[in-house]
């Protein structure tokens, strides 16, 4: 899925009358040739020939245009001093970035996302969300509501450069991770989705992003998806990636407790090493759901004491809170509490 970002250049020309001209382009050599042909700009048309002094590289058109604008605001002497300071160790983009606070690496889509998220920012909502996300520092929570994030994700998914955002891992904010999850939910190509999940899962760092990744495309190939879920659970435990393990269990819970159910899937969930809160909570949730959809096997898990005490009791609690569990079963489950 990797897609290379185009490079944008802010360039400086010295004209025949010793004045300076600054512009931006994706191809500096071609642009210089155009100027010398009298087709580049009105200013250089009557000041030919021109020669390239230096150029700066940026990841986005926005950054290149910003650098051009700021450079043009400098006096002639300030421009010359900056140009004289350019070296291999201190290239033009570094001088521009330092002088005008320009992010050299930021792509256009990253800039657009940042602007959109800031426009949707709700400080009170950010304060509300922070305690619910203990694995994320409050500074990383902008405070954008889920419906707004889903709308933005649909817009992003239509962009030709969306893969630049998906490949820019890890994300800086919680909301960027949420956008990533919602974009993946909309992917229709199975192989592309799996590749994207494999790339993203190691960077998921909170329960909300993990649980809101529910790409329906996974249901297209149940055998492959079941094998993937088991592999994510195994790798997540082996490499201490909590949310990869949690995601794998979630996949089995959402798509493999009905027609595609296999007792081996439940045993795989039971056998996950206990002790990590966000994994154990998902294991409990799985068993609670199984008590509705596969009650005989789920009851057997509880009756034979296959789970650790915390997960056992939490599964019973969640099942007894469900409206889909009969009063009779709720009473029977209460008797199984440890």
TrEMBL record:
Keywords carried by this UniProt record: Endonuclease, Hydrolase, Nuclease
Coiled coil (residue ranges): none
One Pfam family hit: GIY-YIG
One Gene Ontology molecular-function label: endonuclease activity
Keyword Hydrolase: yes
CDD domains documented for this protein: AlkD_like, GIY-YIG_UPF0213
Record-annotated GIY-YIG domain positions: 6-81
Source species, domain of life: Bacteria
UniProt-listed PANTHER family: UPF0213 PROTEIN YHBQ
Protein family according to the UniProt entry: Belongs to the UPF0213 family.
Name of the protein in its database record: Predicted endonuclease, GIY-YIG superfamily
């Amino acid at each position: 899925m990797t897609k290379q970002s185009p490079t944008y250049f802010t360039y400086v020309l010295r004209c025949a009358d010793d004045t300076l001209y600054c512009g931006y382009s994706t191809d500096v050599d071609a642009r210089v040739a155009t100027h010398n042909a009298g087709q580049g700009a009105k200013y250089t048309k009557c000041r030919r020939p021109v020669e390239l002094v230096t150029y700066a590289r940026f990841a986005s058109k926005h950054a290149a245009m910003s650098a051009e604008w700021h450079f043009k605001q400098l006096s002639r002497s300030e421009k010359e001093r900056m140009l004289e300071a350019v070296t291999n160790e201190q290239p033009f983009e570094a001088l521009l970035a330092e002088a005008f606070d320009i992010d050299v690496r930021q792509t256009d889509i990253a800039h657009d996302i940042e602007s959109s998220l800031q426009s949707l920012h709700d400080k009170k909502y950010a304060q509300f969300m922070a305690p619910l996300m203990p694995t994320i520092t409050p500074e990383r929570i902008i405070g954008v509501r889920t419906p707004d994030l889903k709308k933005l994700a649909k817009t992003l998914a239509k962009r030709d450069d969306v893969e630049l955002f998906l490949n820019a891992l890890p994300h800086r904010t919680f909301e960027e991770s949420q956008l990533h999850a919602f974009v993946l939910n909309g992917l229709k190509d199975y192989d592309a989705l799996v590749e994207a999940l494999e790339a993203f899962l190691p960077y998921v760092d909170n329960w909300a992003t993990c649980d809101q990744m529910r790409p329906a495309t996974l249901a297209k190939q149940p055998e492959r998806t079941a094998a993937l879920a088991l592999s994510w659970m195994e790798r997540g435990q082996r490499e201490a990636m909590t949310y990869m393990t949690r995601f794998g269990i979630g996949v089995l819970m959402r798509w493999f407790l009905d027609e595609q159910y296999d007792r081996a899937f439940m045993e795989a969930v039971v056998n996950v090493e206990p002790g990590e809160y966000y994994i154990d909570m998902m294991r409990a949730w799985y068993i609670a759901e199984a008590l509705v959809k596969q009650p005989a096997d789920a009851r057997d898990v509880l009756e034979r004491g296959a789970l650790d005490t915390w997960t056992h009791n939490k599964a019973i609690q969640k099942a007894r809170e469900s409206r889909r569990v009969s009063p009779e079963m709720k009473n029977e489950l209460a008797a199984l509490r440890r």
